[in-house]
Specification:
With 477 residues, the chain is an alpha/beta fold. The protein contains 16 helices and 14 strands. Helix 5 links the parallel strand 3 and strand 4.
Length: 477
């Protein structure tokens, strides 16, 4: 039987015009931005694959929900709608809204970490690790070794290595381990999922030693999809059922609702422990807002509650991940080095393999992201040494095993044609890889430097060598 094509499970009701810039305009824009795609103006970007955080398109039901915003300072009805949705689909006892995921990370870190503690995790994420370290903890990576190999095709490369957890317990003692942060669809590993079996075993090990387990549930719905299609025991379970079981093995979670839950702002912290919940509600008043709004408008909480329900619809999540897989297949078939298997929210280019002539201390991923923008107006982001930062003790650059460029797909925003344009630009750059020049810092912030740092090419003022007068703007522009 011939495999039939599928299409997006929605139709387009409203459009937002995009502006295609010329090569000269893009070169001027990237120079002004210090070769940091985070510092580009949105109006100068054609296809924006910087992040899927808060960039998704809301549904007609969500937009209608905005009109039901109860903007009372205390006890907004929208909070109770959100609380009900989180209870139903995530299953945790207490829900504390925050303005976004890092607000939840901040509160959890302040509550649970003492100076000198250790936090275990299946690979770091930038903001999570920053909050943990600011609270006085040392982060220990306990992800499986396969996660650091871009070519390894293991289906669950986000899994925790239980032997590494046991070694950490032996080295530091369970009493010094504040908690284990288990990330769903591990971002820095290429959006790689964890298996239900691994989560269950990790939970049992933590409970045996009295160590709390908190999920980073930001992309738990996407992770639930991979469990359904890759873990045979769950083939006939719904996404909602898998999500609920996934969360049942944890003591709570942090969540940026700007991803799975399809909203432009918002997040939440969940805990099962009553005393911890009281402390979190008290702390959220200090840093976010009253515990029934957490820095959010009522309308935002209503959109989030609706988005949570939409996120677990199978047709939606299949199409969302299907678009990522579509772009990944095009790049993989053209020989572009990417993280395999393709993850849930983005295609990750192995920049070190793409640009072997650029040393790691000249930041090949940062250079490739800048060159991609110059070539086609596609904005991506670096996930390598710039994101990793510096060693707190020595001040030296940290060089993670993976040096990546992330092509992050917003949900329900772009068509397959946009993926075609993106793939064509990446493939063209791969054929001309030696035309891309490494970068050096000219400005480096103290914290989370990848957001605001500025760079300069090692030679001249261009990150991408072009023939005089050449303009590679797509022909349709």
């Amino acid at each position: 039987m011939v495999r039939r094509s599928w299409a997006e499970p929605f139709k387009i009701k409203m459009v937002e015009p995009l502006r295609m810039t010329s090569l000269g305009e893009r070169e001027a824009a990237i120079l002004d931005a210090g070769f940091n795609t985070f510092l580009l103006k949105s109006e100068d970007v054609y296809i924006d694959l910087l992040t899927d955080s808060g960039t998704s398109a809301m549904s007609d039901r969500q937009w209608a929900g905005l009109m039901l915003g109860d903007e009372a300072y205390a006890g907004s009805v929208n909070f109770y709608h959100l609380e009900e949705a989180v209870h139903e689909f995530y299953g945790f006892k207490h829900v504390i809204p925050t303005h976004q995921g890092r607000g939840a990370e901040h509160i959890l870190s302040r509550m649970c970490i003492k100076p000198g503690d250790v936090v275990l995790g299946n690979m770091y994420f930038t903001t999570t690790k920053a909050h943990q370290e600011l609270a006085g903890a040392r982060f220990i990576d306990v992800i499986c070794d396969q996660a650091h190999d871009s070519a390894d095709r293991s289906p669950f490369k986000g899994n925790v290595d239980l032997a590494k957890v046991e070694a950490a317990i032996e080295q530091f003692g369970a009493g010094r381990i504040a908690y284990l942060c288990l990330q769903c669809n591990v971002n820095m590993a290429g959006g790689q999922p964890v298996s239900m079996e691994n989560v269950r075993k990790t939970s049992l090990l933590c409970r045996k030693h009295g160590i709390r387990l908190f999920l980073d549930a930001t992309r738990a719905v996407e992770n639930a999809y991979f469990i359904k299609v890759r873990e045979p025991a769950y083939a006939n379970r719904s996404i909602a059922q898998i999500l609920r079981e996934l969360c049942s093995y944890a003591d709570g979670c942090t969540c940026s609702a700007k991803k799975d839950a399809l909203v432009n702002i918002g997040g939440f912290l969940c805990v099962n422990d009553d005393d911890l919940a009281d402390e979190a509600r008290n702390m959220v008043v200090l840093f976010e807002g009253l515990h029934t709004y957490g820095g959010l408008a009522g309308r935002d909480m209503e959109a989030m509650a609706i988005g949570i329900r939409e996120s677990v619809e199978f047709d939606h999540i299949r199409a969302r991940i299907g678009q990522v897989e579509y772009l990944g297949r095009m790049l993989d078939s053209a020989g572009v080095p990417i993280i395999r298997p393709v993850g849930g929210h983005a295609v990750f280019i192995d920049a070190a393999a793409f640009l072997p002539h650029i040393p790691r201390d000249q930041f090949p991923a940062q250079a490739l992201a800048a060159a991609l923008y110059v070539d086609s107006g596609v904005r991506a982001m670096e996930r390598g040494a710039v994101s990793a930062g510096r060693n707190a003790d020595t001040g030296e650059h940290l060089f993670p095993k993976l040096e990546l460029v992330r092509l992050t797909i917003p949900r329900r925003v772009y068509t397959q044609a946009h993926m075609d344009v993106t793939a064509e630009s990446v493939i063209e750059l791969h054929a001309r890889a030696r035309d891309i020049i490494g970068l050096r810092f000219v400005y480096e912030p103290k914290f989370l430097r990848f957001f605001q740092a500025k760079f300069q090419p090692m030679v001249g003022e261009r990150v991408l060598r072009l023939a005089p007068g050449a303009d590679r703007t797509p022909a349709h522009a």
